[in-house]
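Late entry, evening session. Most of the bench is empty. Finally got around to the prediction I had been postponing all week. Sequence below, unchanged from the version circulated by S.P.
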Amino acid sequence: MALFGLFSKQKKETLDKGLEKTKESMFSKLSRAVAGKSKVDDDVLDELEEILITSDVGVDTTLKVIERIEKRAARDKYVNSAELNRILREEITDLLTENNTHDTENFDLPADRKPYVIMVVGVNGVGKTTTIGKLANQFKKAGKKVYLGAADTFRAAAVEQLVIWGERVGVPVIKQSMGSDPASVAYDTLSSAKANEADVVIIDTAGRLHNKIGLMNELTKIKKVMEKIVPGAPDEVLLVLDGSTGQNAFEQAKQFTAATDVTALAVTKLDGTAKGGVVIGISDQFKIPVKYIGLGEGIDDFQLFRRKEFVDSLFGE
């Protein structure tokens, strides 16, 4: 069974619904910007720049998009304002394609990696534990044997939440007492997973940013300990970001990419915000693939990031 399954009509509807607030916000502003205009002129481009920035696409990425549209207008000589939606969609899709080389559309676990180890990082409150639970559910549905490691030992709530998700999904959670060494939890988890021939191990880690050096040392220690059990582990360092925080998500990405080698991103809570443009900016600025997006509270409201479908839902078919 393919991981995450095929992109079904139901998944498209979930994506459409999840991005509804961002779409409505962007398009009501875009409609006002082009009202009464016959072509894309400097005034329209200035309005578009403001729309993208206020949708949390980010200044640098916005300027890239505007520059692309200016070149397009110069090349085509005359661009009708009615075509702006289509052009904007094409340019953003191209930008995401250039900056997101990870092929999430056909994602599967490497045959030569067992267990496949994912270390999950991110600040508290971004939906990290929920993301782990939903990810474990997807792997379990695909017939994979999954183990979870509760290495965020500084918060009792984090361990409790992970245990609840483990029970809900039906996968074992390896934990120790509060305040235990997180690297020790990771060691126990991988040892147990390897002994029981697990396919996937997902390790939760503490989300503290007040001391970047401490965080860096802790994550490095966890990595070194895991590598003793599974050479080359972790296979993936997944940074979870809360899409509803907009520019704060950029700052968190900056901090965590400085503290450890982040290889993939999960952007959560896109359904409750008009700041969905943050996905575009983060993908562009950090050159780290957005791999997953969270679109609601339901256990299945979690998808692989498919750039074309994302842009289609954002801009309308």
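Two things to note before I forget:
The longest helix spans residues 59-76.
Strands lie at 116-121, 146-150, 173-174, 200-204, 236-242, 264-268, 290-294, 302-304.
Will write this up properly tomorrow.
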